[in-house]
Design brief:
Blueprint: E1 3-7, E2 10-12, E3 18-25, E4 33-39, E5 46-51, E6 57-59, E7 67-72, E8 77-82, E9 91-98, E10 109-110, E11 114-118
Parallel strand pairs: 2-11
Antiparallel strand pairs: 1-3, 3-8, 4-5, 4-9, 5-6, 7-8, 9-10, 9-11
Amino acid sequence: QVQLVESGGGLVQPGGSLRLSCAASGSIFSRYAMAWYRQAPGKQRELVAAVTSSGSTNYAGSVKGRFTISRDNAKNTVYLQMNSLKPEDTAVYFCAADPYGLGIRSKFSWGQGTQVTVSS
């Protein structure tokens, strides 16, 4: 099992930047694929970015070129650097740990979420 705690959310102006962090404990972090999901009011939770245990990344088309996911296995932490933020990025952002790297959500561990609000 793995426990996840997100931090770094907040209020930012359009065009601004935030860096989210997800600290993991309780398992072998380096073997997990890690991901960031987000959920806005009235919408389904959607994948934002993911990084595999080998370091490969993928992104939702809506954030590609603006967001960067990275991991520091020595610190058991995954990050989401968010640049050029838009109001439509407003959501609760969740960190997820995928023990097998297969995208099977029923096997994920989830953080509690951190609110990101992009507004003037």
